[in-house]
Amino acid sequence: MGQQSRGIIMRHCINCCIQLSPEDIQTQQVSCRGGSHHSHQECPVCKAENKIVFRVDGKQMNLLAVLEVRADGNESWGGFLRFKKGKRCSLVFGLIIMTLVMASYILSGVHQELLISSPFHYGAFPSNPSLMEGENPSDTKEHHHQSSVNNISYVKDYPNIKLIINSITSRIEFTTRQLPDVEDLKKQELHMFSVIPHKFLPNSKSPCWYEEFTGRNTTDPYLTNSYVLYSKRFRSTFDALRKAFWGHLSHAHGKHFRLRCLPHFYIIGQPKCGTTDLYDRLRLHPEVKFSAIKEPHWWTRKRFGIVRLRDGLRDRYPVEDYLDLFDLAAHQIHQGLQASAAKEPSKMNRIIIGEASASTMWDNNAWTLFYDNGTDGEPPFLTQDFIHAFQPDAKLIVMLRDPVERLYSDYLYFASSNKSADDFHEKVTEALQLFENCMLDYSLRACVYNNTLNNAMPVRLQVGLYAVYLLDWLTVFNKEQFLILRLEDHASNVKDTMHRVFQFLGLGPLSEKQEALMTKSPASNTRRPEDRNLGPMWPVTQRLLRDFYGPFNARLAQVLTDEAFLWRKT
Fold first, then answer.
1. What is the pLDDT of residues 352-372, one digit of tens each?
2. Are 428 and 541 in contact (CB under 8 A)?
3. What is this structure's pTM?
């Protein structure tokens, strides 16, 4: 029993050696030759002769044993028969265990985890991540398809994550932002204020004005447009604009004039909330004309020279490039104004222009690059400040959905590889930790608009904080200028949603055929089949996100006086 006195349980045969150390069992570490393990001990039978050590991608295995095969084959199998019965049984048992592990590893197809759970635990946490405190195990039976979540490697420190969420929610304070002066806005955007007038044509529902065109008839009016220069996919769009341009100039006093327009209404957000579907249906209305590009992202990104923030800054897109996108709509408004000028000069042109960049409501990531830091890390200027300076009567449409489901949809849409419920859970946990770190030192608004934080978070947690953004928009626009919709309501009753939009925008009624085409067409931009096959998020991830978004949803429901925005049942 000398081997046992050394604290090592040895099992020998001529060709194989398995050793299990009680110390290894306690620390859950593997001891093997050729490694750097501090508690490694040589087998007295095998000594230090040539060995071939079997490993699995160099990963630590919970069996706490390494099977080693002697390189020399001089011994015969007769030696096996000379072993005592107990040693033979131990050897067979070890081989069976190793075979099961290797088979489990191969069948799983995953190189990070094994299907056989370790008998050792890392702490007093449940082995099923979907089983939270206060839940009965029987409640999770409906999630049998998520059985892999039982794997010990997925177990997280859920009490600590809840503490993180509690830390965040305890620091939530919805404060009123300080509005900038118009003169301060002008200093930031001198060129924009020199191009856009303060007053618009009185007989156009959309904000339009005539601007002198000084180019020759051989001049390409879109030659320097940044949308054309930086994106090949927009070139065909501008080919159509070129063909229509020269036939829609106005002539007076030997000069040429073009009609310029801004949108009458904006669909300002949020991403993955059904804005594309709303856009596709609304543009079927004969009185509605959208920008030549569905999402110009000019107010939030292009005017700062941002295409992808991680790629750095390009030349800033001037306001003229943005106005070019509304030229087709401006041509139709111009024709209407010309036709009615002789008969009914005061007749209102009913065409309205819309724009549907889903970043408008929330994306102010560029402020740290162009504006002096505001008070305590809060941005001194926001997108809505500039829109309101030119269009104080603009109409704003917002489509929202359960922020928990929005985040998962956003993850599935933008993640490029390795998408899974497990990966999503990992990213959510990391994002919550990063957000808490910011909240420990800064205000809620400073963290929501923190560009460094937003780029660091692996999922766009901040986009679902609807109440923060809406309250900031309500500091400059009146509540009556907003139409707030829920994707859940839109999906269940498209016709009702569209009628609400028509009424809000003051649009005329549609024929029965037009309405059927608008309301019965399939939904746009739905989840891709390969993403649907991934299934839903884990129940525990959903619960954590509900705890995080809960206070923000409550404030939103309070502002809108509508408990549907609590998303208790979605």
1. 999 999 999 999 999 988 887
2. yes
3. 0.73
